[in-house]
Amino acid sequence: MDQKQFNAAIDLLRAQRQIVQKYWSDATQQTQDFTSEGVVAATSWPYQVNLLRDSNKQPIDSVIPEEGATGWADTTMMHAKAPHPNCAYMWLEHSLQPKLQGDLAAWFGSVPVVPAACTGNALLGDTGCKTNGSDNFDKISFWRTPVADCGAGKTCIPYKDWASAYLAIQSGQ
């Protein structure tokens, strides 16, 4: 975003701050806020939704706004100079096994990277991928770290400025 777009986004966040009871940074704390602090709506992950609904039997559901939402994909990486690259590759291969991917998706509320994990997994169940959002990718804009050089000779607002502005908004400034 350029400066004008950044300013508009910050103005919008400041206006929204008046109706936001609390910003969460800890998933467990957010689930507690729903059960004991009177929070009735918040941005969240499928993990908290599933935990509140399935484990805590709370009347919780989720929705993606018609405008869409942001999301991200977590990754596992290997250092270019790993001292034991064969072991690292073995770990990467293990992490891609459908059972492990399905179990992880069931626990965290994510969509597995391996489509085969979406069926036949006892923990995830055959509807777990849909429950966790596999049908919603067209509504998700994947998050990217803001950088100052956004190409084509344009100057954009870097991450450090976003972070500073967001912390100020969270604290009521």
Question: Could you explain how this protein is built, in words?
Answer:
With 173 residues, the chain is mainly alpha-helical. 42% of the residues lie in helices and 3% in strands. A two-stranded parallel ribbon has the order 1-2. Helix 1 packs parallel to helix 7 and helix 2 (27-36) crosses helix 3 (46-55).
Number of helices: 7
Please provide the ordered H/E string of secondary-structure elements.
HHHEHHHEH
Number of strands: 2
> Which sequence of strands runs across the widest sheet?
1-2
Q: Radius of gyration, rounded?
A: 19 Å
Described by strand count, sense and barrel closure, the largest sheet is: 2 strands, parallel
Terminal Cα separation, in Å? 22 Å
Residues in β-strands, percent: under 5%
Low-confidence stretches: none
Secondary-structure-based class equals mainly alpha
Mean pLDDT: 89
Q: Which range best describes the helical content: under 10%, 10-25%, 25-40%, 40-55%, 55-70% or over 70%?
A: 40-55%
3D shape = globular
